[in-house]
Amino acid sequence: MRVVALLPALVSFAACRTAGVTAVEARPPIVQPGAPGEPTRVIGAEQAIDLSQVQYIGADIKFMQGMIGHHTQAIEMTDLLRTHSGSDVMKKLALRIELSQVDEIKMMQRWLADRGQQVPTGREHHTHGVALMPGMLTPDDMARLEAAKGVEFDRLFLEYMIRHHEGALTMVKDLFASPGAAQESEVFAFASDVEADQTAEIDRMGAMLNTLMKEHQR
Fold first, then answer.
1. How buried is 153 (Cβ within 10 angstroms: 0-12 exposed, 13-18 middle, 19+ buried)?
2. Residue 140 shares a structural domain with residue 205
């Protein structure tokens, strides 16, 4: 009789244990994103805790500081477009670039200030002798753009902005290639967004440039 009485308890215990194991097994996995072009991987809870403590390094600081100046020049280019182009399509492109990059400059300035790092004004590239970030326009390039009007301005703007965006992609590539860089989640997310957004914009501007050239070859 004692054995029979224990059976329900054992069955109940086994059921609870099975349910417990199932609940643990049913927990969603923790996935660590890979760098652009690389696969994601499933990691354990301890690894996730370790990753949450990852700190920035010098390459992250340099990337943020350099990208502020890079974005600032792009905004200077879109400012010219307001008065130098008569194309509504071009003006919509410029507005999209400006809005996204103004917000990103604020984010980068906050990121640097929160970490006690030097926050550039973004206009350092106007200083004589300062090395420009990849893809940035030289003073002569900017002067040529400022002197152009109408269709000629539109053509130069697209050519220069494509080159400018390609430079940003180079900066992202260099960041991801630096050992230990882009491990902090905010840096990784921002650099990944720059790569995705500016790649898409390069494609869009390339199509716009092709259309412009065809229309004015007739």
1. buried
2. yes
Domain housing 150: 55-215
For tokens 């009485």, what's the residue?
A: 5
Task: Summarize pLDDT for 161-209 with one digit per residue, the tens.
Answer: 999 999 999 999 999 999 999 999 999 999 999 999 999 999 999 999 9
For residue 161, which of 98, 108, 216, 213 has the smallest C-alpha distance?
98
pTM for this entry: 0.75
Q: How many CB atoms lie within 10 A of CB 156?
A: 20
Q: Which of 161, 142, 146 is nearest to 208 (CA)?
A: 161
Residue 93 sits in a domain whose CATH number is: 1.20.1260.10
Determine contact, residues 163/144, Cβ cutoff 8 Å: no
Q: Are strands 41-43 and 30-32 parallel, antiparallel or unpaired?
A: antiparallel
Mean pLDDT, rounded, of the chain: 84
- In this structure, the answer to whether residues 154 and 124 fall within a common structural domain is yes
Strand, helix or coil for residue 132: coil
- Do 8 and 97 share a domain, yes or no? no
Is residue 160 located within the same domain as residue 110? yes
pLDDT digits (tens, 9 = 90+) for 124-134: 888 877 889 99
Q: 136: part of which helix (H) or strand (E)?
A: none
Among residues 170, 179, 63, 72, the alpha carbon closest in space to that of 112 is found at: 63
Q: Are residues 92 and 179 in contact, defined by beta-carbon separation less than 8 angstroms?
A: no
